[in-house]
Amino acid sequence: MARPDYILxxxxxxxxxxxxxxxxxxxxLDYDFIxxxxxxxxxxxxxxxxxxxxxxxxxxxxxxxxxYKSTAEAAxxxxxxxxxxxxxxxxTAYNVTIEAINIPTIKTIAITAEGIPERFxxxxxxxxxxxxxxxxxxxxxxGIAAGAFRIGNAGGTIENIVKSKLHRPGSVGLVTxxxxxxNELSNVIARNADGIVEGIAIGGDRFPGSDFLDHLLRFQxxxxxxxxxxxxxxxxxxxxxxxxALKDGLITKPLIAWCIGTISKHxxxxxxxxxxxxxxxxxxxxxxxxxxxxxxxxxxxxNSFDEFPDIIRSVYEDLRAKGVIGEIEEPEVPExxxxxxxxxxxxxxxxxxxxxxxxxxxxxxxxxxCGLPIxxxxxxxxxxxxVIGLLWFKRKFPDWASKFIDMVIKVVADHGPxxxxxxxxxxxxxxxxxxxxxxxxxxxTIGPRFGGAIDGAAKxxxxxxxxxxxxxxxxxxxKNVEKIPIPGIGxxxxxxxxxxxxxxxxxxxxxxxxxxxxxLDYALEVEKVTTAKKENLILNVDGTIGVLLVDMFRNLGYSxxxxxxxxxxxxxxxxxxxxxxxxxxxxxxxxxxxxxxLYRHPxxxxxxxxxxxxxx
Length: 616
Ligand code: ACO
Ligand code: LMR
Hints:
Elements: E1 14-18, H1 22-34, E2 41-45, E3 53-58, E4 61-68, H2 71-77, E5 81-86, H3 93-101, E6 108-111, H4 118-131, E7 134-136, E8 143-145, E9 149-150, H5 158-163, E10 172-176, H6 179-192, E11 196-201, H7 212-221, E12 227-233, H8 238-247, E13 255-260, H9 287-296, H10 308-321, H11 340-345, E14 360-361, E15 368-369, E16 372-373, H12 374-379, H13 384-393, H14 399-412, H15 420-430, H16 435-445, H17 454-466, H18 471-482, H19 501-513, H20 518-533, H21 541-555, H22 560-568, H23 573-594
Parallel strand pairs: 1-2, 1-5, 2-4, 5-6, 6-7, 10-11, 10-12, 12-13
Antiparallel strand pairs: 3-4, 8-9, 8-11, 14-15, 15-16
The protein binds acetyl coenzyme *A and (2S)-2-hydroxybutanedioic acid.
C-alpha cells in the first residue's frame, strides 16, 4: 500500500546506504532488530570497493548486503528502496545527492556530511523541491521514525534508544536542528510524555534541504502525532516560517517551541555557535526574538530551556485527560546480541582455538619471528639461515650451524636445466602457465630419487649406526631387507671419477667447523663399499646433507628422538625444497624472458611399443 506523503518512513522502508560505513550500517540493522522489523538496508554504494557484498548482523543472524559501484545500479536492482542514506564525504555528497534526486524510485535523501559549500546546499534543496523529493540535512544525524526506521546513528546507542522510547511510536512529532539535542530531547519527551512518533534533526547548516516547517506540516497531517515539539536556535530565519504558518492557521496541533542561544545576548559581539547557521546576524535572528515571535503566534514557549520538561508534561497530561492520547502498550524489546570481539576484549567469553602457532605472531604492532620483531632481525643482521633457524626450529643456531645451513641452500639452489625438477618447471612454463604453477610443478618433482632423498638418507644411515651395523651389513640390509636403493647413495653423472664438488664443499666445511661428524664418517665408510661395486654409487649431495644434518643437530644437543621427529616431519628435505626453489624460479623466468613456445617432446625420443590386445 502506498504511503501517504506525510509519512517518510515506516516499518517497510528500505534504504540504500551510500558509503561502506560498517558501524553506521550495523547500528541501523541493530535498530531494525530491536524493533522487530526486517533489515532496512538493501544495498550499499561504494564506488571504490571491489567486493560484491558485505556481511552484517541482524540479531544473531548474518546477512549479506550487496555492494554496488553506483547509486543508479543500486536503485535499479532495488527499486523497493525509496530512501538514500548519504554518508558520503562533504566532497562527494553533493554529486551523490544530485544523482539520487534524479532517480525516480528514491524519494528521501538524508545527508550526513558537514561542510558542504552553501551554494551547493541551496542547489540541492532547490532541485529536490522541484523534483518533489525530501532532503534531510546536510550536517545531520538524520532522524527516527519510532519503531520503524532509523537513519544512521540517530538516537545514539541502543540502550539510549530504548531508554528514550525511540523503539516504539509515542505521540510527539519532534524537529530539531542538532543531533545531540535530538537525543537529549527524545529522552526528556520519554520521561515527561510517551515518546515520539517521528523525530528529525534538520542539520546545522544555514540552508538545510528541509526545514522545521516542512516537517511540522507533515506532523500536522499525521494522525499519530498528537502534539509537536520544535527546538530551533539563533541564526537564520527558518523559525519565522513556522511563526507565519501558526498565524495562517496551518498548524493547529499544540506546538511546544524553543530556540536555544538566548545566552548570546550576554556576549559583547556576534558569536558563532557550534552550527554553521548558528549566528545571529540581525536582531530578529536572535533566540530571544524568535522565542517571542513564536509565543506571540500561539506556540507554547517556555521561559527557559529548563522549563521544557514541565511544559511537555503539562501538554501531554492535558491531552491524556481529554482522551486524545491513550495508553501505550510497551513492546517487548529483544536483547541485542553482544559482538564477540567486544566480549573477548572485555574478557567475558572463552572459546577453544582451532589452530596453534608457536613460531610467529602478527598481532602486535610488528610481526615477530619466534618473539623477535622483524626489525630486530634486520637490525641484528640475521642471515637467511638465522631466519630459518627461528622459523623452522625456534632457535638461533651458533654461527657454524647457520653457516652450514647457508651453504646447503647455496649448493642445492640449482643444478642445471636437465635435472628432473628444472625440466618439469621449464616444460610447464612453456605450456603458458604462471610462475607459481611452474614452480609447484618443479617442487612436486622432488622425491626419493631426486632431491628428496635427504630425509631417507638421514633416517637409514642413522638407524644403521644406532643398530651397530657395519657398512657391509648395512648395504646388505638395504638390499635384502628394505629392498630399496640406499637413499643418498648414487648419482646419474657424478662418480668417483667425476666427484661432486658440492659434496666436497659440504664435507670440508663440516670437517673444519662441526664439533664432530660421526654419521658422515660412517656414511663415507658405506660409500667405500658401494663405490667398490660401481663408481657412481657415491655418497651424493642428498646423502651428504642428510648425514651432516644429523651430525649438526646432535652437536646442537638434540636428542635422537628429537632428530627422528624432525626427519619424520620432512624437515631435512625442506632444505632442498627451499634451496632448489631459487633455481626453479630462475629457469621459469628464463623461459618467460626467452618467450619460449610450447614444448613437445620429439617422437624419435620415445620407444613406441603399442600393441592391440588380441581379440579387440
Ligand atoms: N643403493 C644401492 N645400490 C644402488 C643405488 C643405491 N642408492 N643406486 C643404484 N644402485 C645400484 C642398482 O641396484 C644397480 O645395481 P645393479 O647394476 O647391480 O643392478 C646399479 O646401482 C645401477 O642402478 P640404476 O638405478 O641404473 O642407477 P642410476 O645411476 O640410474 O641411479 C639414482 C641413480 C636414481 C640416483 C640412484 O642411485 C638412486 O636411486 N639413489 C638413491 C636415491 C638418491 O639418493 N637420490 C638423490 C640423488 S642426488 C639428487 O637428486 C640431488
Ligand atoms: C641435482 O642436484 O639436481 C642433481 O644432483 C641431480 C642430477 O640429476 O644431476
